[in-house]
Design a protein that fits this description.
- It is a single chain.
- The protein has 210 residues and is an alpha/beta fold.
- The protein has a domain of 142 residues: Rossmann fold.
- It is built from eleven helices and six strands.
- Helix 9 links the parallel strand 4 and strand 5.
- Helix 2 runs antiparallel to helix 3 and helix 2 packs across helix 5.
Length: 210
């Protein structure tokens, strides 16, 4: 039976940072976004409010800023190698993240079968943000279920990789999970744990797991 590998983005594929922070850095708005990330981490705001406020911050965002953020971000090493190996084995890989869709979806170019993020309007923004398109921890499970149907697998065939509270619900419904550079709360829920900068080493922990 094929397996579906589900990867978080912020703090997981990206080491020690998030897509919004990398985008904001290109606009000179790093401090403002750090403050927002502290608020959401503390539970003072939820994903819709966070998304609304970064959307407002990014009024001057261009495609050039997004490209620079994507290519300049501190990605884990050997992401493409892992996804190529997953494909070679007849398995599937997908990225599911609360970060903006226009950033997350670029990872299909690296070999992900699918990439889902919070739905933001096209860059540069001329449309408002629709809060209904903003993802949550619970939405990650719904998307995972949809991907299972698409690829002909079940939750029992899934492996999840994540680092924070937004991954807790997904970790709770799949049999195999890898806490990647994660906080202790998520590590306690995971079947495996990895700290480092190379995704292949994290993948090796579950490569042959059933």
């Amino acid at each position: 039976m094929a397996r579906l590998h589900l990867f978080d983005l912020d703090g997981t594929l990206l080491h020690g940072t998030t897509a919004p922070l990398e985008i904001s850095r290109q606009l000179g708005l790093e401090a403002e976004t750090v403050a927002l990330e502290r608020e959401i981490a503390a539970g003072l705001i939820g994903p819709p409010e966070y998304a609304h406020r970064v959307h407002a911050l990014w009024a001057g965002l261009t495609e050039a800023h997004v490209l620079a953020a994507f290519h300049g971000a501190p990605w884990l090493e050997r992401i493409r190698d892992v996804w190529a190996e997953i494909r070679r084995r007849g398995d599937y890989c997908a990225v599911v993240s609360l970060s903006p869709s226009f950033f997350v979806e670029r990872l299909t170019g690296w070999g992900a079968h699918a990439a889902h993020g919070s739905l933001f309007p096209a860059v540069p923004f001329t449309q408002p943000l629709d809060p209904a398109g903003v993802l949550s921890a619970a939405a990650k499970v719904l998307i995972a279920d949809r991907l299972c149907r698409e690829f002909g697998v079940t939750r029992a065939d899934c492996v999840a990789y994540g680092d924070s509270s937004s991954d807790k619900e997904l970790f709770g419904v799949v049999p195999v999970s890898v806490a990647v550079n994660a906080d202790r709360h998520l590590t306690a829920l995971a079947t495996h744990s990895y700290a480092g900068r190379d995704l292949w080493d994290a993948y090796e922990l579950v490569r042959h797991a059933q």
